[in-house]
C-alpha cells in the first residue's frame, strides 16, 4: 500500500521504523523528475541519520513495501521510472 507523507515528520519516521524493508520515493513537492530518487527505508540519506525536515519545506515522500508500487505511482502521475539511490541500491 502506498503511503504519501507531506508535512508529517513523526508519521514518516514511524513508517520507516515499521517497514524496515520498504522503499521511499523522495521528491520535491513540485515532483520534478530530476530530483526524484527511490531509496530503501534503511538508507541513511532519508531515515534521519543525515538530517531532518524529510516531509517539510520542499520535500515530499511516497512510501511502499516494494518498488513496483512506486513505479506504478510514478507512471500514474505521468513520470518515467526514476533513478535508484546509488548508496542503498548498490549491487551486493
Helix and strand element order: EHEEEHE
Q: What's the total number of strands?
A: 5
Contiguous runs where pLDDT drops below 50 for at least 5 residues = none
Rg result: 12 Å
- Average pLDDT reading: 89
Fraction of residues in helices? 10-25%
Number of helices: 2
Largest sheet composition? 5 strands, mixed
Strand residue percentage: 15-25%
Sum up the overall morphology in one term. globular
Task: Supply the number of structural domains.
Answer: 1
**Order of strands in the sheet with most strands:** 1-4-2-3-5
What structural class do you assign from the helix and strand content? alpha+beta
Measured distance between first and last alpha carbons: 27 Å
In short:
By secondary structure, the protein is an alpha+beta fold. The protein has two helices and five strands; from the N terminus they run βαβββαβ.
Amino acid at each position: 500500500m502506498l503511503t504519501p507523507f507531506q508535512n508529517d515528520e513523526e508519521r514518516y519516521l514511524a513508517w520507516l521504523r515499521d517497514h524496515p524493508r520498504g522503499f521511499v520515493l523522495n521528491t520535491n513537492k513540485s515532483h520534478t523528475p530530476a530530483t526524484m530518487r527511490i531509496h530503501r527505508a534503511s538508507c541513511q540519506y532519508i531515515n534521519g541519520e543525515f538530517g531532518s525536515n524529510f516531509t517539510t519545506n520542499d520535500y515530499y515522500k511516497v512510501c511502499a513495501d516494494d518498488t513496483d508500487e512506486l513505479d506504478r505511482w510514478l507512471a500514474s502521475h505521468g513520470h518515467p521510472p526514476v533513478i535508484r539511490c546509488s548508496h542503498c541500491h548498490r549491487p551486493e
